[in-house]
Write a structure and sequence with these properties.
The chain is an alpha/beta fold. It has one domain (4-90). It contains three helices and five strands; from the N terminus they run E-H-E-H-E-E-E-H. It has helices at residues 22-27, 42-55, 85-90; strands at residues 4-9, 31-34, 65-69, 75-77, 82-84. A three-stranded parallel sheet has the order 2-1-3. Strands 4-5 form a two-stranded antiparallel sheet. It is flat, with a radius of gyration of 15 Å.
């Protein structure tokens, strides 16, 4: 039986342009809403979930499963992009 699934998080959960990856395999037999993005911080992942909830206060009842792909704690949020502080500290 098909499930309704929400995927949020970093690049591990993204849909890649080459048409491969586990989210696309999952979507073959399930209804998947994928809001994951490459290069995001934990803060941005939280914002992904807030954006879903902004459209529907009872959003959690619309999904059988919610998958959150966490990122590296060294990814930090900025207004223009996500930067990795561990590389900046080495410079």
């Amino acid at each position: 039986m098909a499930k309704t699934i929400l995927i949020a998080g970093d690049s591990f959960g993204c849909e890649w342009p080459n048409g491969k990856g586990w989210p696309l395999e999952l979507a073959k037999n399930n209804a998947v809403n994928n809001v994951a993005q490459a290069g995001v911080s934990e803060y941005k992942i939280l914002k992904q979930l807030h954006n879903v909830s902004a459209h529907d206060a009872y959003w959690i009842h619309n999904y059988d499963c919610v998958i959150v792909c966490h990122t590296s704690p060294s990814n930090t949020h900025s207004q223009t992009s996500c930067t990795q502080t561990r590389f900046a500290q080495r410079l």
